[in-house]
Amino acid sequence: MRTFTGHLSALLIIFIISATSTAARNPVLLKEPENIIPEIKTGNLPASDVKPDVNVYFLSGLGADKRVFDKLKLDSRFTVNHIGWIKPERRETLQHYAGRLAVQIDTTKPFRLVGLSFGGIIASELSEIVRPQQVIIISSTATGVPVSKFYRGLIRFLLLSPFAAPILKSANKQTYKYFGADTPELKALLRDILHDTDSKFLKWALSRMSGWERKEKIPNLFHIHGTADRLIPIKLVQPNAIIEGGGHLMVYGQAEEVSRLLNEHLK
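^ thats the sequence. predicted structure below, dont judge the formating
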């Protein structure tokens, strides 16, 4: 049963990726969604909290939290902050969701964003609301791939299935393979992340990712990607820096190399 579930999990992940890949070869322009970005209140942190260091805000991947960044070693000049995921509203767009996350950022002083996987997509959307000095994405994509209405409908149909959540949250040989969890430590981390993932958030995010329509990468963006990423294959993206053999969780599994690139390229 576990093997069967594992294969279904892999198939669902592969389908979402292959659908976007096929659509990239046959793009269909989609109507821009209506979005109302909530008003962002700035300067809401006490003056005593202001530090002279470089503020960097990290956004983790789907269902993950700051644990995935535990092994990174950044220079002392950086003040690391973590943006926490919140519950999406009914039929909420990525742009509106990013606007609600923006209240976690102190915009009264310069800052940078670092986004992992889905966090990279949200970082791109946040950049148009809060104007960071720089955005770095890891194991992510700088632009969306236009997806036809047929593929988008099929993906949403699959995600609405009562079997979708337990399949996607299943930790097994197949999910380890596609996330690049090839050590006992990475496997344990992935198991914990999947266990703690909110099912509704996961399905909402995957659905929104399949319909993300950004056509050009944002200014001041630096993209780090691994050659062995199976969830977002490197052939679908155009990174600025490549980590040989890096999988989707290289931010943890190859943290030394990722740390070096962050320290070099965070301005």
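Strands lie at 54-59, 78-82, 111-116, 134-138, 221-226, 241-243.
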